[in-house]
Amino acid sequence: MLLDEQLPRHLARELTRHDVRTVQQQGWAGLKNGELLRRAANEDSEVFLTADQNPEYQQNLARAPLRVVVLVAVSHALEDLLPLVPGALAAISGSRPGQVVRVAR
């Protein structure tokens, strides 16, 4: 799983049962989403976790080999994102490649 750069890296600890890498750990900070998603797919990531609210309007994701999970919270602060973790984990297991799933409270 790839954790987008606007999300706090400590969120990765909460995503149990998944191997989580951050955009920063991959050395991809600052890349536009199209290039970021292409690289993630080439590195065998299966899930892209983001707070970007419009990824399907920025990229054609229907054929993407990634599942995209969008966290919808009042801020990107860890305390606002933590309540979304159970829903994110369920969305990850219940989604398919090319699908964008939003998780909100």
User: Would you count the extended β strands for me?
Assistant: 5
How many H/I helical runs? 5
Q: Helix- and strand-based class?
A: alpha/beta
Tell me roughly what share of residues is in helical segments: 25-40%
What is the helix/strand order?
Answer: EEHHEHEHHE
Largest sheet: spatial strand order: 2-1-3-4-5
Count of the separate structural domains:
1
Shape: globular
In the predicted model, the low-confidence regions spanning at least 5 consecutive residues are none
Distance between the termini: 22 Å
Overall mean pLDDT stands at 88
Strand content: 15-25%
Radius of gyration: 12 Å
Task: Please give the largest β-sheet.
Answer: 5 strands, parallel
Distinctive features:
105 residues; alpha/beta; 5-stranded parallel sheet; 5 strands
What report would you give on this structure?
With 105 residues, the protein is an alpha/beta fold. It has one domain. The protein has 5 helices and 5 strands. A 5-stranded parallel sheet has the order 2-1-3-4-5. The mean pLDDT is 88.
What is this entry, summarized?
With 105 residues, the chain is α/β, with parallel strands linked by helices.
